[in-house]
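User: Show me an example of a complex going from sequences to structure tokens.

Assistant: Sure. Here are the input components:
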Amino acid sequence: MAPLLKVQDLTTRFRTLDGVVHAVNGISYVLEEGEALGIVGESGCGKSVSVLSVMGLIPEPPGEIIAGQVLYQGQDLLKLDDEQMEHIRGREIAMVFQDPMTSLNPVLTIGRQISEPLIVHLGMGQEEAHRWTVDLLEKVGIPQAADRYRDYPHQFSGGMRQRVMIAMALACAPSILIADEPTTALDVTIQAQIVELVKDLRDQLGMAVIWITHDLGVIAGLAERVIVMYAGFIVERGHVDDIYANPRHPYTLALLKSLPRVDRTSGEKLATIDGLPPDLLGLPPGCPFAPRCEYVVERCVQENPVLEPVGPNREVACWVDVTTRRE
Amino acid sequence: METTITETPQYGLEALEAPPLSLRQLVWLRFRRHKMALAGAVMLILLILYATVGALFFTEAYGNITDTSIRLQAPSAEHPFGTDVVGRDLLARTIYGGQISLMIGLTAVLIVIIVGVLVGAISGYYGGWIDGVLMRFAEAMFNIPTIPLLLVLSKMLSDKVPTIELLGREFSGSVVVITAVIGLTSWMGLARLVRANFLSLKEQEFVTAARSIGASNFSIIFAHILPNTVAPIIVSATLGVANAIISEAYVSFLGVGVMPPTATWGNMLNGAYKYLETAPWTWIFPGSLIVLTVLSINFVGDGLRDALDPRALVE
């Protein structure tokens, strides 16, 4: 059977005044039904752009998807026109955004905002949509859901707003939920609640989840497979446990080292990755991570490695074997 | 408008227990503090009552009876505002003229809102060549001087439009022409305003979020973005009513606007300017009514501007 979502060689660029920004450079991945996939990487690594491309939400111009396919149930989403895409968005694939403070319309009641997809996609009448909306609000854990239907976003806290966003995304029971750093703007305690909520809902509804984050800790408890992105490339992918136990790309290794741990002895400094992610305006011919990499060899500067399988369900794009430090 | 929650006025402890103010309450609270706006609103209501309730005491036909034997009579018990150059009762004429003037103001602004919002919204939302074409068109319209255009168009068209009947009153075709011409020549400012707001609002994340749930462009423009920009539209429309009334008075004063016997405050002045000194009552009453109306509307507009501004504070 064909996978639920198959992204192939997706390449997205932005034409800006300064030049062409190579945001996503030919990434491929598959998402099976009901699976949870994590995409991690620093800010500016093309994580968000890659999923916005899938949703057809890249502003064009300046954005441009110049190559690749996004096969949803065998159908290439990149070939659909606006109207066909409207039937996919919210109905088949839904999305939760990073900042719940700005992703809700400040002048519409939350009831109005959640019921819109129900009316648009499922053809419900006002009353039925109202009932469903209250149901949804309860499901995402908003107390006194019926009373809060007519409230405006500013009457909710950040965590509650993110719950509203999730209710909105899940309204039509989509088969894929894309969560673009949904916990980044929230308190740590609220973060855990939101992660738990999505996990619960996923178990109930059986949808597939793509969870984007720069926090490897969040992914650990949630996703089965992880993709590590750097400078618009996938540099490593594999099962979450494998990657954590045994990172094979220097970037993944560095990311894991920079994670604060409870069992760390006090006084020890947190490891950081020196430097910044590369400017996506002009990528060097070699590996984009080479300038910051502690395993760098000469070949890295000249040639960009491609993803190579290094074990069952495990792929890495690196010239060096970090376990042996040999090429 | 998001910031309104931080603006809960400082009362005391009891305010903490009261439910938060709704936007409407907040606007009313701020509007109330604007004394001139409040006075303007009261005055405006009185003027509307004058033009509507007053009509119960006199028929329109009464206002149109000409009797040259009583021409240019000073105010008296029988004719409280005096009579005009052909002996018509000025009180009755200011009442019916007021209806026309106010109606022209409101209808013209309705046209302005429809055209201005549509052009501005489409222009700002879609951008690109659509924006280019619409905005160049608006600029071209801006460059045509309105008053001469009004004069030429109303002279050309006013006898070509048939008389219509509405709400039990007959309106000469010239009323329709004037309204349409004023409306169609004053939408550009609003269109620019709406466009500018759309340009910034469409970049907001909630628009992307709306698209992500499959909302159509139509729904995003009218249901998601437009409600975020009603405040400036309301203010602009309020002030637009005053401008439309002035424009109508202007062309009617010059004798090419609304044709007699239909009275408007403007064309009553037309017959009066020869008697500025000999029969001042012929221009004082319609003239003052115009000034009062326009002034009140402008005060109300100012008050609304402050009251609807989400950044304004309630001290």
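The lines above are the inputs; the final block is the predicted structure for all two components together. Chain B has 14 helices and two strands.
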